[in-house]
Automatic annotation (TrEMBL):
Protein name per UniProt: Adenine DNA glycosylase
SMART domains from the UniProt entry: ENDO3c
GO biological process, one term: mismatch repair
InterPro entries assigned: DNA_glycosylase (IPR011257), HhH-GPD_domain (IPR003265), HhH_base_excis_C (IPR023170), HhH_motif (IPR000445), MIG/MutY (IPR044298)
Source organism (scientific name): Candidatus Magasanikbacteria bacterium CG11_big_fil_rev_8_21_14_0_20_39_34
Length: 324
Protein backbone atom coordinates (compact mmCIF):
# COMPACT_ATOMS: atom_id res chain seq x y z
CA UNK A 1 0.00 0.00 0.00
CA UNK A 2 2.77 2.38 0.97
CA UNK A 3 4.70 1.52 -2.19
CA UNK A 4 1.61 2.13 -4.25
CA UNK A 5 1.04 5.63 -2.87
CA UNK A 6 4.77 6.44 -3.10
CA UNK A 7 4.77 5.48 -6.77
CA UNK A 8 1.49 7.26 -7.50
CA UNK A 9 2.49 10.40 -5.61
CA UNK A 10 5.82 10.62 -7.39
CA UNK A 11 4.35 10.15 -10.83
CA UNK A 12 1.67 12.75 -10.20
CA UNK A 13 4.30 15.19 -9.01
CA UNK A 14 6.39 14.42 -12.10
CA UNK A 15 3.52 15.13 -14.50
CA UNK A 16 3.38 18.70 -13.26
CA UNK A 17 7.01 19.34 -12.39
CA UNK A 18 9.21 17.41 -14.82
CA UNK A 19 12.45 19.25 -15.68
CA UNK A 20 11.75 20.16 -19.28
CA UNK A 21 14.25 20.55 -22.06
CA UNK A 22 16.74 17.88 -21.02
CA UNK A 23 17.78 16.50 -24.41
CA UNK A 24 18.46 13.00 -23.05
CA UNK A 25 14.83 12.72 -21.94
CA UNK A 26 13.51 12.36 -25.47
CA UNK A 27 11.03 9.52 -25.92
CA UNK A 28 13.14 7.82 -28.55
CA UNK A 29 16.73 7.77 -27.52
CA UNK A 30 19.43 5.28 -28.45
CA UNK A 31 21.63 3.41 -26.02
CA UNK A 32 24.56 5.40 -27.44
CA UNK A 33 22.87 8.72 -26.67
CA UNK A 34 22.04 7.58 -23.13
CA UNK A 35 25.61 6.50 -22.59
CA UNK A 36 26.99 9.87 -23.80
CA UNK A 37 24.68 11.72 -21.41
CA UNK A 38 25.55 9.51 -18.46
CA UNK A 39 29.29 9.88 -18.99
CA UNK A 40 28.94 13.66 -19.23
CA UNK A 41 26.65 13.88 -16.22
CA UNK A 42 29.11 12.14 -13.93
CA UNK A 43 30.37 14.92 -11.69
CA UNK A 44 29.25 17.73 -14.03
CA UNK A 45 26.24 20.02 -13.58
CA UNK A 46 23.18 19.38 -15.72
CA UNK A 47 23.07 22.93 -17.14
CA UNK A 48 26.67 22.64 -18.37
CA UNK A 49 26.13 19.22 -19.86
CA UNK A 50 23.12 20.29 -21.95
CA UNK A 51 25.28 22.54 -24.16
CA UNK A 52 28.06 20.01 -24.59
CA UNK A 53 25.67 17.15 -25.22
CA UNK A 54 23.90 18.73 -28.18
CA UNK A 55 27.14 19.81 -29.86
CA UNK A 56 28.74 16.46 -29.23
CA UNK A 57 25.88 14.56 -30.85
CA UNK A 58 25.86 16.86 -33.86
CA UNK A 59 29.50 16.07 -34.49
CA UNK A 60 29.32 12.39 -33.42
CA UNK A 61 25.73 11.28 -34.10
CA UNK A 62 26.52 7.58 -33.79
CA UNK A 63 28.96 5.32 -32.05
CA UNK A 64 30.53 4.54 -35.43
CA UNK A 65 31.31 8.23 -36.01
CA UNK A 66 32.81 8.51 -32.53
CA UNK A 67 34.88 5.37 -32.99
CA UNK A 68 36.52 6.89 -36.09
CA UNK A 69 37.63 10.00 -34.22
CA UNK A 70 41.17 10.66 -33.04
CA UNK A 71 41.80 12.16 -29.61
CA UNK A 72 42.54 15.51 -31.30
CA UNK A 73 39.20 15.45 -33.15
CA UNK A 74 37.35 14.39 -30.03
CA UNK A 75 38.86 16.82 -27.55
CA UNK A 76 37.26 20.13 -28.69
CA UNK A 77 33.83 18.58 -28.11
CA UNK A 78 34.72 17.40 -24.63
CA UNK A 79 37.17 20.02 -23.39
CA UNK A 80 35.77 21.86 -20.39
CA UNK A 81 33.95 18.92 -18.90
CA UNK A 82 37.07 18.02 -16.95
CA UNK A 83 38.05 14.48 -16.06
CA UNK A 84 39.93 13.62 -19.22
CA UNK A 85 40.16 10.02 -18.18
CA UNK A 86 36.42 9.81 -18.80
CA UNK A 87 36.99 11.20 -22.28
CA UNK A 88 39.68 8.62 -23.01
CA UNK A 89 37.38 5.89 -21.72
CA UNK A 90 34.66 7.14 -24.05
CA UNK A 91 36.84 6.82 -27.10
CA UNK A 92 38.10 3.39 -26.09
CA UNK A 93 34.57 2.18 -25.42
CA UNK A 94 33.24 3.50 -28.73
CA UNK A 95 35.97 1.63 -30.60
CA UNK A 96 35.22 -1.53 -28.65
CA UNK A 97 31.47 -1.29 -29.34
CA UNK A 98 32.14 -1.06 -33.06
CA UNK A 99 34.89 -3.67 -33.11
CA UNK A 100 33.32 -6.28 -30.84
CA UNK A 101 29.59 -5.60 -30.84
CA UNK A 102 28.93 -4.43 -34.40
CA UNK A 103 28.03 -0.91 -33.24
CA UNK A 104 25.29 -2.04 -30.81
CA UNK A 105 25.61 -1.51 -27.09
CA UNK A 106 25.13 -4.83 -25.29
CA UNK A 107 21.77 -5.48 -23.68
CA UNK A 108 22.86 -7.12 -20.46
CA UNK A 109 24.16 -5.45 -17.34
CA UNK A 110 27.01 -7.93 -17.11
CA UNK A 111 28.33 -7.14 -20.59
CA UNK A 112 27.78 -3.41 -20.23
CA UNK A 113 29.84 -3.40 -17.06
CA UNK A 114 32.84 -4.80 -18.91
CA UNK A 115 33.07 -1.50 -20.84
CA UNK A 116 35.59 1.09 -19.67
CA UNK A 117 34.02 3.59 -17.29
CA UNK A 118 30.63 1.83 -17.14
CA UNK A 119 29.55 0.91 -13.62
CA UNK A 120 26.32 -0.59 -12.28
CA UNK A 121 24.43 2.69 -12.37
CA UNK A 122 25.36 3.61 -15.97
CA UNK A 123 24.60 0.07 -17.12
CA UNK A 124 21.12 0.25 -15.57
CA UNK A 125 20.54 3.69 -17.05
CA UNK A 126 21.43 2.41 -20.55
CA UNK A 127 19.13 -0.59 -20.10
CA UNK A 128 16.29 1.51 -18.76
CA UNK A 129 16.42 4.63 -20.94
CA UNK A 130 18.01 3.14 -24.07
CA UNK A 131 16.39 -0.30 -24.19
CA UNK A 132 13.25 0.31 -22.08
CA UNK A 133 14.24 -2.61 -19.86
CA UNK A 134 12.70 -3.08 -16.48
CA UNK A 135 15.59 -1.71 -14.40
CA UNK A 136 15.70 0.96 -11.74
CA UNK A 137 18.88 2.99 -12.17
CA UNK A 138 20.07 2.98 -8.57
CA UNK A 139 22.25 5.96 -7.86
CA UNK A 140 22.58 8.35 -4.92
CA UNK A 141 19.30 10.06 -5.93
CA UNK A 142 17.23 6.90 -5.80
CA UNK A 143 19.01 5.73 -2.67
CA UNK A 144 18.25 9.03 -0.96
CA UNK A 145 14.56 9.25 -1.86
CA UNK A 146 13.73 5.58 -1.17
CA UNK A 147 15.88 5.59 1.98
CA UNK A 148 14.19 8.65 3.45
CA UNK A 149 10.65 7.75 2.49
CA UNK A 150 10.63 4.13 3.61
CA UNK A 151 13.27 4.07 6.35
CA UNK A 152 13.71 7.65 7.50
CA UNK A 153 17.31 8.16 6.40
CA UNK A 154 19.17 8.39 3.14
CA UNK A 155 22.01 6.03 4.11
CA UNK A 156 19.82 3.08 5.03
CA UNK A 157 20.94 -0.22 3.52
CA UNK A 158 18.06 -2.06 1.88
CA UNK A 159 17.39 -4.69 -0.70
CA UNK A 160 17.15 -2.81 -4.00
CA UNK A 161 15.85 -5.87 -5.83
CA UNK A 162 12.81 -5.85 -3.62
CA UNK A 163 11.90 -2.41 -4.94
CA UNK A 164 12.82 -3.33 -8.52
CA UNK A 165 10.03 -5.91 -8.38
CA UNK A 166 7.47 -3.88 -6.50
CA UNK A 167 7.56 -0.67 -8.52
CA UNK A 168 5.06 -1.28 -11.30
CA UNK A 169 5.46 1.95 -13.29
CA UNK A 170 7.45 1.97 -16.51
CA UNK A 171 10.97 2.10 -15.12
CA UNK A 172 12.21 4.53 -17.73
CA UNK A 173 9.64 7.09 -16.60
CA UNK A 174 9.96 6.30 -12.94
CA UNK A 175 13.75 6.72 -12.96
CA UNK A 176 13.37 10.17 -14.50
CA UNK A 177 10.68 11.06 -11.97
CA UNK A 178 12.82 10.13 -8.96
CA UNK A 179 15.84 11.94 -10.36
CA UNK A 180 13.89 15.16 -10.82
CA UNK A 181 12.21 14.81 -7.47
CA UNK A 182 15.57 14.24 -5.74
CA UNK A 183 17.00 17.35 -7.39
CA UNK A 184 14.05 19.67 -6.90
CA UNK A 185 12.32 18.55 -3.68
CA UNK A 186 14.08 15.81 -1.76
CA UNK A 187 17.36 17.71 -1.93
CA UNK A 188 20.27 17.58 0.47
CA UNK A 189 18.19 19.85 2.70
CA UNK A 190 14.77 18.49 1.74
CA UNK A 191 11.78 20.75 1.12
CA UNK A 192 9.45 18.59 3.18
CA UNK A 193 6.83 21.22 3.87
CA UNK A 194 5.92 21.43 0.21
CA UNK A 195 6.40 17.71 -0.50
CA UNK A 196 3.35 15.74 -1.67
CA UNK A 197 4.71 12.55 -0.09
CA UNK A 198 5.26 13.92 3.37
CA UNK A 199 2.27 12.31 5.12
CA UNK A 200 3.73 8.84 4.67
CA UNK A 201 7.40 9.71 4.59
CA UNK A 202 9.34 8.26 7.49
CA UNK A 203 11.91 11.04 7.36
CA UNK A 204 9.19 13.66 7.72
CA UNK A 205 7.30 11.73 10.39
CA UNK A 206 10.48 11.37 12.44
CA UNK A 207 11.26 15.03 11.89
CA UNK A 208 14.57 14.06 10.30
CA UNK A 209 15.74 12.52 13.54
CA UNK A 210 16.37 9.05 12.10
CA UNK A 211 18.76 10.48 9.51
CA UNK A 212 20.51 12.56 12.12
CA UNK A 213 20.76 9.57 14.43
CA UNK A 214 22.30 7.41 11.72
CA UNK A 215 24.75 10.13 10.81
CA UNK A 216 25.88 10.33 14.41
CA UNK A 217 26.08 6.57 14.74
CA UNK A 218 28.21 6.29 11.63
CA UNK A 219 30.47 9.03 12.90
CA UNK A 220 30.80 7.48 16.34
CA UNK A 221 31.23 3.98 15.02
CA UNK A 222 34.29 4.96 13.01
CA UNK A 223 36.94 2.90 14.74
CA UNK A 224 40.34 3.99 13.60
CA UNK A 225 41.89 0.71 14.76
CA UNK A 226 39.74 -1.27 12.27
CA UNK A 227 40.26 1.17 9.38
CA UNK A 228 42.55 0.88 6.39
CA UNK A 229 44.69 3.72 5.10
CA UNK A 230 44.61 4.54 1.36
CA UNK A 231 47.92 6.29 0.82
CA UNK A 232 48.22 8.69 -2.12
CA UNK A 233 51.93 8.92 -2.68
CA UNK A 234 52.81 11.89 -4.80
CA UNK A 235 55.61 14.10 -6.08
CA UNK A 236 54.49 17.66 -5.30
CA UNK A 237 50.91 16.73 -6.20
CA UNK A 238 51.87 16.65 -9.88
CA UNK A 239 52.66 12.99 -10.34
CA UNK A 240 51.25 10.14 -8.31
CA UNK A 241 52.87 6.79 -7.69
CA UNK A 242 50.70 3.71 -8.06
CA UNK A 243 50.79 0.37 -6.30
CA UNK A 244 49.68 -1.20 -9.59
CA UNK A 245 51.80 -1.01 -12.72
CA UNK A 246 48.94 -0.76 -15.27
CA UNK A 247 46.28 1.42 -13.64
CA UNK A 248 46.31 3.97 -10.89
CA UNK A 249 45.77 2.46 -7.46
CA UNK A 250 46.68 3.99 -4.08
CA UNK A 251 48.72 2.01 -1.61
CA UNK A 252 46.29 0.20 0.68
CA UNK A 253 47.79 -0.69 4.03
CA UNK A 254 46.81 -3.60 6.28
CA UNK A 255 43.91 -3.05 8.72
CA UNK A 256 44.87 -0.89 11.68
CA UNK A 257 48.05 0.52 10.07
CA UNK A 258 46.63 4.01 9.86
CA UNK A 259 48.72 6.25 12.05
CA UNK A 260 51.50 8.34 10.60
CA UNK A 261 54.21 6.27 12.27
CA UNK A 262 52.65 3.05 10.88
CA UNK A 263 52.61 4.44 7.35
CA UNK A 264 56.19 5.68 7.58
CA UNK A 265 57.37 2.37 8.99
CA UNK A 266 55.52 0.41 6.31
CA UNK A 267 57.12 2.30 3.41
CA UNK A 268 60.57 2.26 4.98
CA UNK A 269 60.52 -1.48 5.62
CA UNK A 270 58.86 -2.50 2.40
CA UNK A 271 60.29 -0.05 -0.14
CA UNK A 272 63.22 1.66 1.61
CA UNK A 273 61.50 5.05 1.35
CA UNK A 274 61.32 7.82 3.93
CA UNK A 275 58.02 9.68 3.76
CA UNK A 276 56.46 12.87 4.95
CA UNK A 277 52.87 11.89 5.83
CA UNK A 278 50.01 14.39 6.05
CA UNK A 279 47.03 14.05 8.41
CA UNK A 280 44.08 12.19 6.82
CA UNK A 281 42.08 14.40 4.44
CA UNK A 282 38.98 12.24 4.09
CA UNK A 283 37.41 9.41 5.95
CA UNK A 284 34.30 7.32 5.54
CA UNK A 285 33.11 3.87 4.59
CA UNK A 286 33.52 1.94 1.39
CA UNK A 287 31.15 -1.03 1.27
CA UNK A 288 30.84 -0.80 5.02
CA UNK A 289 34.58 -0.77 5.69
CA UNK A 290 36.17 2.22 7.43
CA UNK A 291 38.72 3.96 5.23
CA UNK A 292 40.96 6.99 5.61
CA UNK A 293 42.67 8.82 2.75
CA UNK A 294 46.18 10.07 3.39
CA UNK A 295 48.59 12.05 1.22
CA UNK A 296 52.29 11.40 1.53
CA UNK A 297 55.46 12.59 -0.17
CA UNK A 298 58.82 10.89 -0.58
CA UNK A 299 61.69 12.59 1.25
CA UNK A 300 64.40 10.02 0.74
CA UNK A 301 64.82 6.97 -1.48
CA UNK A 302 64.17 6.01 -5.07
CA UNK A 303 60.64 4.88 -5.91
CA UNK A 304 60.22 2.10 -8.46
CA UNK A 305 56.50 2.50 -9.03
CA UNK A 306 54.46 3.43 -12.08
CA UNK A 307 53.53 7.08 -12.17
CA UNK A 308 50.23 8.67 -13.21
CA UNK A 309 49.23 12.25 -13.71
CA UNK A 310 47.10 14.16 -11.26
CA UNK A 311 43.99 14.01 -13.44
CA UNK A 312 43.94 10.23 -13.46
CA UNK A 313 44.10 10.16 -9.69
CA UNK A 314 41.33 12.71 -9.32
CA UNK A 315 39.15 10.66 -11.68
CA UNK A 316 39.75 7.60 -9.60
CA UNK A 317 38.94 9.41 -6.37
CA UNK A 318 35.74 10.83 -7.87
CA UNK A 319 34.57 7.31 -8.66
CA UNK A 320 34.94 6.13 -5.08
CA UNK A 321 31.63 6.37 -3.37
CA UNK A 322 31.62 6.67 0.35
CA UNK A 323 28.76 5.18 2.33
CA UNK A 324 28.22 8.26 4.43
S1 LIG B 1 8.87 14.51 2.94
FE1 LIG B 1 10.89 15.35 2.78
S2 LIG B 1 12.29 13.64 3.04
FE2 LIG B 1 10.27 12.83 2.62
S3 LIG B 1 10.26 12.46 0.43
FE3 LIG B 1 9.40 14.48 0.81
S4 LIG B 1 11.13 15.90 0.63
FE4 LIG B 1 11.98 13.85 0.88
Amino acid sequence: MKIYSFEKGLLEWFKKNERKGLPWRRKRISAYEVWVSEVMLQQTQVSRVVIYYENFLKRFPSVEELAKASWEEFLPFYQGLGYYRRGKNMLETAKKIVREYGGQFPKTKKELMTLQGVGAYTANAILSFGYSKDSLAWDTNLQKVFGRFFFGNKSEKFDEKNFDEKIKAEKKIFNGAVMDFANLVCKKEPLCDSCPLKKQCKFFISNGKLELKQKKELKNSFRIETARAYVFLHAEHKMYYSSNTKKYKPFILPIGKVRREHIKEYFLNKYGLTLSVRPPHKRGYIVGRPIIFVNAQILLGVPVFSVFDRQRVHDMMALISFDS
